[in-house]
Amino acid sequence: MKRTVILLLVVFVLSQSYALKCHCGGLRRCPGGPVETCQSFNQVCGSVIITAGATPNFFRGCMSASQCAALDNPGTSSAFCCRRDLCNR
């Protein structure tokens, strides 16, 4: 029983240490500060510029690859998606 608990703790710690970290900001709320640690379902760091409207806006942070790709719409928004820590400067 003790070995199982220890093994689970080791797996949890290792999985957390390999989590992707992304810059966070702009229109996106970042309660933990300017860097966020991504959850397992968010595989990319994204940086999105929204050009629709009178004033361009931006946001950056963790997101799924499909969300990031869908936000790359010429004339409305442009998205940069990457898979390395803090690559969405």
Low-confidence stretches: 7-11
Count, helices: 2
What top-tier CATH class fits best? Mainly Beta
| Biggest pleated sheet | 4 strands, antiparallel
What would you call the shape? elongated
Strand % is 25-35%
**How many domains would you count in the coordinates?**
1
* Cα separation of the termini: 45 Å
The tally of beta strands, per DSSP, is 6
Could you tell me the radius of gyration in angstroms? Answer: 16 Å
Strand order across the biggest sheet? 2-5-4-6
Protein name: UPAR/Ly6 domain-containing protein
Organism: Periophthalmus magnuspinnatus
Signal peptide: 1-19
Keywords: Signal
Notes on the protein architecture:
By secondary structure, the protein is α+β, with helices and mostly antiparallel strands. The protein has one domain: CD59. It has helices at residues 2-17, 65-70; strands spanning 21-23, 25-26, 35-37, 44-50, 57-63, 77-82. Strands 2-5-4-6 form a four-stranded antiparallel sheet. A two-stranded antiparallel ribbon has the order 1-3. A hairpin with a 6-residue loop joins strand 4 (44-50) and strand 5 (57-63).
Topology readout:
Layout: H1 2-17, E1 21-23, E2 25-26, E3 35-37, E4 44-50, E5 57-63, H2 65-70, E6 77-82
Antiparallel strand pairs: 1-3, 2-5, 4-5, 4-6
Signal peptide: 1-19
Protein name: UPAR/Ly6 domain-containing protein
Keywords: Signal
Give a brief rundown of this model.
The protein is an alpha+beta fold. The chain is built from two helices and six strands; from the N terminus they run H-E-E-E-E-E-H-E.
